What does this fold into?
Amino acid sequence: MIMTKEDTKELFYLTEIKNDEVYVVDSIKAGIERSEQEFGIYNGILRPIFELLKIKHEHLITETSTSIKEFGESLKGSTKQKTVIFISGDTSISEFVNSLTKASSSSILKLFVIPAGTGNSLALSIGNNGVLDSIAKLFTHSSKDVHPLYLYEVEFPLGSYFLSQSEKTQEITKPYKFLVVFSWCFHASLVADSDTPELRKNGIERFKIAAFSNLAQEQRYDGTVQVGSKKFEGPFAYLVITLSQRFEPTFEILPKGNILEDSLYLVSFKTEETETAEQDPLVKGKYIMDIMGEVYNKGKHIENDKVIYEKIEEGQNIEILIKNAKVERKRRFCLDGSIILLPEEEENKIVVRPTGDTHNNFKLRIIS
It folds into this structure.
């Protein structure tokens, strides 16, 4: 369809972001890597529309592992609203939010996601189901489609590190925010083990490959979880803390959740003992795959008595006590796709708490 001058003028006036400071973060290493020269999402679709509507913007290509961090640190508070458009998955957005430094004045910062990662949970949970659908929404949304972006903070023990492809990178010296998921046990293990150049070539299938590899090992993670006055005893096989309805298009982890509300859930189930360590992995891990199958079946797992499906009430913190975790894989956690390794101690404690929709004087909003 060819747009007339009248069409262009109407779209310009419809576009909420026309008076904002607009940035496009193009995470070319997200999902299956893309080349910045590729005739794709930005060069093929987004840039021509911006040029047609005469909307000024800055385009950031993530050339290094610190590109997003440096961009986040560079943003300053101002009276003018900012819109940051991510062509990425969840991890890039999480890295950006955590890199924001304290602004001198309060400022509204709107985020929009065009799904291009392996994990697109945030996009799926706000109804951005594809590239073209998302871009149409970007230019036609109204102020009613701008919602608070709620964050949750995780306090890690001293001596914790980020892992990248099983190598320690940055030491964690402060609490970190998440906006989609924080996990331990089977979920964190399959995300960590799928983080290799070879498996990344498989896109979302890399998680299934890593899952079958993990089923060959006993999924036993000793510890306890305290939510308010409730205490859940391990050993756990699966544990996620999330506000996202879906991790994949059909993986409905929170059928009753709403990422646009300040509502967090604990979803977990315990380890089922098997007869021998040498048992066939498909038999050993059958109970895990059965419950995962229920998640794929429109979230039927919440009807399973073995599954903990706990809504975190206002003002409640979550405390996780990790025990008997000398083996490294039992000390790995996933925060919005990033992997974190806890120190080798007799016990480690993690605290998860709500922090609202403002971070370092930036009032965070999500365009849905």
User: Anything to note?
Assistant: The two ends are 25 Å apart (CA to CA).
